[in-house]
Amino acid sequence: MAEETLTKERILDTAESVLRKFGFAKANMSDIARAIGVSHAAIYRYFENKAMLQQAVVERWMNGVFEPLAQSMKEAGSPETRLYHWLSALRMFKRERARQDPELFAMYARLVADTPGALEIHIEHLLEQLQILIEDGKAAGIFICDNPRQAALGVFLATTRFHHAAFVSEWEEPEADSRFEAIWHMLLRGLSANR
Fold it and tell me: What's the pTM value of the predicted model, to 2 decimals?
């Protein structure tokens, strides 16, 4: 590949393949450059060091969830339905990724844990979306809460076991869906103006 046609996306795609083969600790910028067919100096034009490349790889992986979540936020329906669909989209996206490629999912879970600030930034984006949904419900008189941000955090924490990689071993258990429904009904009762 000519260095003139090199793109950030191409580097990230290749980095994922190289990481899969060697693991992040053993993979280096030269391995990625070699796999693309460019000099390692070409990679450094896009990423100053391996840590920055790791950050970009992790962000792209985690940000994949925002497309299905954005779709669920655009759906018509009651605030309760939109919130339920958002939580379900988050849960099913993570579950599907783990099902499709458990090895890659586990590798990324380790990478996320080893990338300073990555998880905090990701959670902040998720909380912002949750807060919007709760504010919409409050404006419609469906949800009661003094502090939508605090309510968003409560909903997020209550559902963590259904979308955090630390709980991946539970996602395929026969009771997983009924557990989610039980938590959902408790949350809905807590938020509801008609309790």
Answer: 0.86
